[in-house]
């Protein structure tokens, strides 16, 4: 008999990391798996000779279903090197946002401290033997486990592809089918020096007609520094229409659209595009987390809303639910 309850968490984004941290504080033995090379998910950053780009989630906006991150655990997680900035929301309302003083991915790296994380692990199958969960990864031979509980925080479509093979998870799969993401093309653009750049803006959200949902001057964010540079996010509709085009053609198209809208020369020192297939939440479950059978749980931004802080709320709620139903063999480590 093991004395510590074992939790496997699939996904090292905001939801998975904060769930792992909280569950571990409550005494569970947590192991986080992610197919990427490092933690963060859409809390992604790219360092370049011109400075860093926060090309996934450029800032942490307020949660969809709460005016502030009121949970003290969220406040603690967001207290590392963040500045509060009032930005213009895409829908025209003023709202506060948290902007990292370094890169937004550095925040995710802080959250991994004290956790056991395995990267470049792509989950391809999972099974329950009547007592425990076992996981199989594309990069590994054999099964990893046993685990008492599993929390999945990957996009719903990826979870469905795995869980639809398990008849016991039929009800959970029905719930996952109601949750949807839309794609987002993100472009990192460092233009050549231009006098017009001196009057640049931090955020522009009035470029929707050009297919651009968000245009951010990275060098003008707090401690941004470096050369003038932009992160561009295409709208969900534009991204879907151009989803399978090459990154080179997408980068050029969005750069030209932004240059025309901002009245800048369409030139570049550096230009790259990244395809986020699950960049926008288009339909959320409206629940903090989902519960399957045999101790399987699901959490993520598509549970509650569209923001990274929504994802964190969901991860905390799932961790609390998992810990609350388990026997008192787990000891509070705080």
UniProtKB/TrEMBL annotation:
<dbReference type="InterPro" id="IPR036188">
    <property type="entry name" value="FAD/NAD-bd_sf"/>
</dbReference>
<protein>
    <submittedName>
        <fullName>NAD(P)/FAD-dependent oxidoreductase</fullName>
    </submittedName>
</protein>
<dbReference type="InterPro" id="IPR002937">
    <property type="entry name" value="Amino_oxidase"/>
</dbReference>
<feature type="domain" description="Amine oxidase">
    <location>
        <begin position="77"/>
        <end position="322"/>
    </location>
</feature>
<dbReference type="Pfam" id="PF13450">
    <property type="entry name" value="NAD_binding_8"/>
</dbReference>
<dbReference type="Pfam" id="PF01593">
    <property type="entry name" value="Amino_oxidase"/>
</dbReference>
């Amino acid at each position: 008999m093991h004395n510590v309850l074992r939790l496997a968490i699939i996904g090292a984004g905001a939801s998975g990391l904060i769930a792992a941290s909280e569950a571990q504080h409550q005494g569970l033995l947590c192991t986080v798996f992610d197919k990427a090379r490092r933690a963060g998910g859409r809390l992604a950053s790219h360092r370049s000779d011109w400075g860093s780009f926060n090309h996934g989630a450029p800032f942490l906006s307020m949660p969809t279903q709460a005016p502030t991150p009121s949970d003290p655990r969220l406040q603690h997680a967001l207290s590392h090197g963040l500045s509060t900035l009032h930005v213009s929301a895409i829908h025209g309302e003023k709202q506060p946002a948290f902007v990292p003083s370094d890169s937004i991915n550095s925040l995710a790296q802080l959250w991994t401290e004290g956790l056991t994380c395995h990267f470049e692990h792509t989950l391809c199958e999972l099974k329950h033997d009547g007592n425990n969960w076992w996981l199989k990864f594309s990069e590994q031979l054999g099964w990893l486990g046993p685990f008492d509980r599993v929390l999945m925080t990957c996009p719903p479509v990826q979870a469905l592809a795995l869980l639809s093979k398990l008849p016991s998870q039929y009800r959970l799969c029905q719930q996952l089918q109601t949750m949807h993401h839309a794609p987002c093309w993100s472009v990192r653009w460092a233009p050549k020096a231009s006098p017009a750049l001196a009057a640049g803006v931090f955020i522009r959200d009035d470029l929707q007609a050009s297919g651009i949902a968000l245009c951010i001057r990275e060098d003008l964010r707090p401690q941004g520094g470096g050369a003038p540079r932009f992160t561009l996010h295409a709208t969900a509709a534009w991204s879907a229409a151009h989803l399978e085009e090459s990154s080179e053609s997408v980068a050029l198209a969005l750069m030209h659209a932004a240059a025309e809208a901002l009245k800048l020369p369409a030139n570049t020192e550096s230009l790259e595009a990244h395809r986020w297939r699950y960049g926008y939440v288009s339909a959320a479950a409206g629940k903090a987390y989902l519960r399957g059978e045999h101790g399987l749980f699901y959490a993520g931004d598509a549970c509650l809303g569209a923001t990274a802080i929504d994802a964190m709320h969901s991860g905390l709620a799932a961790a609390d639910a998992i810990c609350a139903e388990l026997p008192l063999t787990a000891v509070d480590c705080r």
